[in-house]
Specification:
The chain has 280 residues and is α/β, with parallel strands linked by helices. It contains 12 helices and 5 strands. The chain has a 5-stranded parallel beta sheet, sandwiched between helices. Helix 3 crosses helix 4. It starts with 6 loop residues before the first helix and ends in a 5-residue tail after the last helix.
């Protein structure tokens, strides 16, 4: 199945162009995360999955232009591939989780066919001096990984990996030092603190670039540029290969707008060799 014909991609296309309420975005987000199962869920089951009321699911279907949820579900079944993946039954649960993550990466590859959003994000991040990078709870590892590598080519990267009252102080300090943009990694479950912090960053004048698991994530309303990369949900804890890879793609785009990036990398390699930093 191609990335453009994946269940998640078809749902994203269905939702595009509709002004959805926060509750409806929550339903849409839940549907994308369980895209393969949605055509077979009742309205009650979808409501439980999204944590909303059953009437909210009905109103959501109507907002998309259907007579009700049965019509929406019928449409999803009609556009579903005629055959389910035959190999799925012969795979164990761990293999199925890997296959689902591979599908997420295919969807990301399809999204990157239009490189303009990533290139725009790269320019914004490269131009911000300093560059604050935010990631709390589940997203802390993604933010740390980006900041670790970005610091090799960007002159001033500031990792914001802990919440609390200090995080807004650190954003204010970054703005006073000349920051113009902030990069945020936001993954489920989405902490309220992240939404509040991004709201503060926008009020402080920063352009917010966010890597999130869905275009319908709660952080969308407080982001100037949102780049989605789905997470895997087949295991007890979500897997985030897509957001991690998208972070590396952003690094590449940022390097393209940092004229001295290659020189900085070569300088680091020379220092590392002199110190015997790495085992050959």
């Amino acid at each position: 199945m191609s990335g453009t014909d994946s269940p998640a991609a078809r749902l994203q296309a269905l939702f595009e162009g509709h002004r959805l309420t926060p509750t409806q975005r929550r339903i849409a987000h839940s549907m994308v995360r369980r895209a393969a199962d949605v055509p077979f869920l009742s309205s009650v089951e979808l409501a439980e999955l999204a944590g909303v009321s059953q009437p909210s699911v009905t109103r959501f279907a109507v907002a998309l232009g259907f007579d009700g949820y049965p019509a929406l579900r019928r449409h999803l079944r009609e556009v579903a591939p005629p055959e389910q993946t035959a190999e799925a039954g012969s795979c164990n649960e761990f293999q199925q989780a890997v296959e689902a993550e591979i599908e997420n990466l295919r969807h990301l590859a399809d999204a990157l066919a239009d490189p303009r959003p990533v290139r725009r994000a790269g320019r914004l991040l490269a131009a911000s001096r300093p560059l604050p990078v935010l990631g709390l709870r589940a997203a802390a590892a993604q933010a740390y990984g980006f900041a670790y590598f970005a610091a090799k080519v960007h002159p001033d990267v500031r990792l914001l990996g802990e919440g609390g009252s200090m995080v807004q102080d650190r954003i204010d300090a970054a703005v006073r030092a000349g920051a113009t943009a902030l990069l945020c990694f936001a993954l489920p479950r989405h902490p309220r603190e992240v939404v509040d912090t991004l709201g503060h960053a926008k009020e402080a004048g920063l352009t917010v670039v966010t890597v999130a698991d869905s275009a319908f994530a709660p952080v969308a309303k407080v982001s100037d540029l949102l780049l989605p990369a789905a997470v895997g949900t087949a295991l007890a804890f979500d897997t985030a290969c897509g957001p991690m890879l998208l972070g590396r793609v952003l690094l590449e785009a940022m390097c393209d707008d940092l004229p001295d990036a290659q020189a900085r990398l070569e300088e680091f390699d020379a220092r590392a060799a002199a110190r015997g930093l790495f085992v050959e």
